[in-house]
Amino acid sequence: MATITHLPGAASAHAAPPGPATPLLQVDNVSLEYRTPQSVVRATHRVSFDVYQADRFVLLGASGCGKSTLLKSVAGFIPPAEGEIRLAGQVVHGPGPDRIVVFQEFDQLPPWKTVVQNVVFPLLASRTLGRAEARERALHYLDKVGLAKFADAYPHQLSGGMKQRVAIARALAMQPQVLLMDEPFAALDALTRRKMQEELLALWEEVRFTLLFVTHSIEEALVVGNRIG
Predict the structure, then answer these.
(1) Cα torsion angle, 204, 205, 206, 210, sign
(2) 174 with 97: CB under 8 angstroms?
(3) Using CA atoms, how far apart are residues 86 and 49, in angstroms rounded to an integer?
């Protein structure tokens, strides 16, 4: 069972935070396993927690404790061995555009596409929008992350922090129900990492997306999250 901590000003651990009473995301007694012909490794054991609309919910734990595996299961890449994951009341059976993942690697962006093309691509591939509307939305979210002036640049022309901002803009442009972030700033230097945390919070204040964030850093969990598991 996950232990849920609410930061100052949040509701108690057994009540919904201010806002809708119904959880947006429910992880219900989820156990996850990795199987080989020789062995079975249990990554998580009967984990339960709820994430509400506009939550910044952080999964905090040491490396190897199963938090990234749990995030992948929420994303739909790993089916639970037991328990279930529900999004807006519907059981998650696989990946979908309602859950977008931002990883820690900087090489998430195809290098042959410009910044704006990188943000536009999933909108076109998923047939979410037409080409003109997709570009307009891409530029909107690039502006939100402060990269409108770099729309026509290529990934190799950007710093690590800028590449992560493009990845965040690309994810938010899909307007997912939940944004999933797997230690997205772990590879950055300390100063850039703190700046990215502050920018993420500023973006959340403006857009109020729902965030499920994985980290092994207690400090980062306290900065980013309003609830910590």
Answers:
(1) positive
(2) yes
(3) 11
